[in-house]
Fold this protein.
Amino acid sequence: MFQMPNLPYEHNVLEPVISKQTIDLHYGKHLQTYVDKLNDLVKGTDLEGKTIEEVVKEAPEGPVFNNAGQVLNHTLYFLQFKPKQENNRPTGKILQAIERDFGSFEEFQKSFSQASVDIFGSGWSWLSVDKDGKLIITKEANGSNPVRHGLKPLLGFDVWEHAYYLDYQNRRKDHIDQLWSIINWEAVESRM
Ligand code: MN
């Protein structure tokens, strides 16, 4: 059985960046539906004993891939947040890697925000590690995930409207600008 991630925070602690109502719906309803659908779809198949990463890597395009991708995406997404902090920045190993591959944290942030704004329709922007250990920013349409391309995902921004519409309506860029203040960089670094 594929499981819901246990949130290490209460649903209201990401306010005002992400409201309790959005977490209630996005985590409690959208993600729960992806988990339930995936479990239904793989029941009795040889995918049942695989890890979520294996299913996302191997499944052909279609309902299993779509739901598995969204289970993996949202598990990474909801576990990368903490309460809002002014001047929130990475430190240590993750900061060194960002400075090495993007010049500075500010340059990285600009490129990542732009990638997130530029996605047409529903999708995700990701920071990942490639096979040579280099950090890379990619965009994924719909429910795909960087593991599909042999990358290790570290940080993902969900730009499906369900992620921000209650709090920001059509202002995707405002939502993205605010997200930087709730990133748990220790959690992101632990995925390297
Ligand atoms: Mn979502």
Summary: The mean pLDDT is 97. The two ends are 26 Å apart (CA to CA). The longest helix spans residues 20-42.
